[in-house]
Design brief:
single chain; 555 residues; alpha/beta; eight-stranded parallel barrel; six-stranded antiparallel sheet; globular
Length: 555
């Protein structure tokens, strides 16, 4: 690769930051965040080092599923602002070096969407086949696998017609029928519309559910739709991306990249398997589960990429672990059963899971930025926000951004009772955790994130490099190398609460090579056989750039 390739495939070395407009900043005092508030904080995100802003749904909605129940794919929720406000956000972000991607939620609509309302009025409506129906009663006792205990199965009866409609999620979110060409056309038009307004791509929600087709449908391969979307996307915008939510084992994820299917599909996919293995390693103080997951990761074509994350806007899912492994993580990170949900997930943020230990928190995020792939952050992670345990399930982590120690954390001037959600009231309340205080503290977590991101952005080998686990004898250490034509990095992370000795060799490096630590400027000379040895503190980490004689690279 050449260094200039990083601008063509920009997503391979991006820093993605996910936020919900309604919980970021309220500009008009109504208790809900809005697009004008977001626009006023674009410079904060730029200073943090964000290069790609992922907006959670901002579309018109009854808000029964936090915006994922949409009534108009072309609209902007009037409570958040207007199309003009959104364009201002996109233009300002672009000026500060940030692209903007949006949630694409087209597995279903709200039951209040005009399409579904028309479909319910008559079985002969042209919109009837926009959804999935059945005339015979569904099997008794059928459970909803996404929201067990909450969603009440997969089919709900429409009393007017006597038929049942399918919903993979809640009953108020009827599934769209992608086997219908008219539905696929509407999805393409939706994508084209937002691209025209300046959006640079989409985080595609619930992709495996999106590609489910009704029994007997005349559609040979549902992946044809993903291939068609990717081709359409590239015609309209050569830099646009599709970041897919595909929580499946690695071997099944390959098909969603288009590997072996004669065509490109998703540009990036979240690494759910690696994320879950990381938490198992964390509670065991042993990197072995994560190392095994990284070894099992399939190699991808150059234009595809893994997206790494430690926390997102949903529960922290552990569904790919075994039952015993999941219980092991539960007992350590969520000992109170009220902190668990759906039998598979945790409703806490990282700082509270790690009992506020700054060493472990910083080690975790150092690792995130050195794993092969693109790092994705959830708003508030950079200041160590906690959750509000009083809120229901997933909503516990979707509290307002904490800007200052003032009332409502500086999020809104509205009375606290009118806020879209109350902030935490414990040791993670805005009084204790906020942006304003951390900006003034050079040793804060916020400055730590800024430092990590600045080093990450000058190290494209982290997003592009060939991954290799390095051999050593210390079980508490994860030591890996990422090598690309532009350079090589070695990352060392200690999962134990005691110091450990890192001893390894880069036998393929020549004489005069040194390792330069990008986080503290230490320089370690390699021995004649490429060997090096040093101590790593408890929960410590090192970012070691390979410095070769005459390579001229700034370290």
């Amino acid at each position: 690769m050449r260094i200039t390739d990083t601008s063509d495939l920009w997503w391979k070395s991006a820093v993605v930051y996910c936020l919900d407009v309604e919980t970021f900043l309220d500009s008009d005092g109504d208790g809900m965040g809005d697009l004008q508030g977001l626009a006023s904080r674009i410079d904060y995100l730029a200073q943090l080092g964000v290069t790609c802003l992922w907006l959670m749904p901002f579309y018109p909605t009854p808000d029964r599923d936090d915006g994922y129940d949409i009534t108009d794919f072309y609209g902007v929720d009037s409570r958040l602002g207007t199309h003009g406000d959104l364009v201002e956000v996109i233009r300002t972000a672009r000026d500060r070096g940030m692209r903007v991607i949006a949630d694409l939620v087209v597995n279903h609509t709200s039951d209040r969407h005009p399409w579904f309302q028309a479909a319910k009025r008559s079985t002969s409506s042209p919109y009837r086949d926009f959804y999935v129906w059945r005339s015979d009663p569904p099997p008794k006792g059928q459970q909803n696998p996404v929201f067990p205990g909450d969603a009440g199965g997969l089919w709900t009866k429409d009393d007017r017609s006597g038929q049942w409609y399918q919903h993979s999620f809640y009953p108020h979110q009827p599934d769209l029928n992608i086997a219908n060409p008219a539905v696929r056309d509407e999805i393409a038009k939706t994508i084209g519309f937002w691209l025209q307004l300046g959006i640079t791509g989409f985080r595609v929600d619930a992709v495996p559910f999106l590609l489910e087709i009704p029994e007997g449908a005349q559609m040979a391969d549902p992946h044809d739709m993903l291939r068609d979307i990717r081709r359409f996307l590239q015609r309209r915008s050569s830099e646009a991306v599709l970041l897919g939510e595909v929580n499946l084992p690695y071997d099944q994820q390959l098909a969603f990249f288009g590997v072996g299917n004669d065509g490109q599909e998703l540009t990036m996919q979240f690494d759910f398997a690696g994320m879950q293995a990381f938490y198992l390693s964390l509670v065991r103080h042993d990197p072995a589960p994560l190392a095994a997951a990284l070894r099992a990761r399939p190699e991808l074509p150059v234009e595809a990429q893994w997206a790494n994350f430690l926390r997102n806007h949903d529960e922290l899912t552990l569904d790919q672990l075994t039952e015993d492994e999941r219980q092991e993580v539960f007992e350590t990170l969520a000992p109170d059963e009220r902190q668990r949900v759906y039998g598979r997930g945790i409703t806490k943020r990282i700082p509270t899971m790690l009992e506020g230990d700054p060493r472990r928190i910083r080690m975790a995020y150092s690792l995130l930025f050195t794993l092969p792939g693109t790092p994705v952050l959830f708003y508030g992670e950079e200041i160590g926000m906690g959750e509000n345990a009083e809120l229901d399930k997933r909503m516990a982590v979707r509290t307002p951004m904490q800007w200052s120690p003032e009332r409502n954390g500086g999020f809104s001037t509205a009375p606290p009772s009118r806020l879209v959600a109350p902030p935490p009231g414990d040791g993670y309340a805005p009084t204790h955790v906020n942006v304003a205080d951390q900006i003034e503290d050079r040793d804060s977590l916020l400055h730590f994130f800024r430092d990590l991101i600045s080093r990450y952005r000058i190290s494209p080998e982290l997003g592009w490099g060939r991954f290799e686990l390095l051999e050593h004898d210390e079980p508490a250490l994860l030591i890996h190398s990422l090598r690309a034509d532009v350079g090589r990095m070695v990352a060392v992370h200690n999962f134990a609460g005691t110091p450990a000795i890192a001893s390894f060799a880069l036998a393929d490096e020549g004489e005069g090579v040194a390792l330069v630590d990008l986080l503290n400027s230490d320089r370690l000379e390699l021995g004649r056989r490429g060997d090096v040895e040093f101590e790593v503190p408890a929960y410590g980490y090192r970012w070691l750039r390979v410095s070769r004689p005459g390579d001229g690279r700034v370290t």
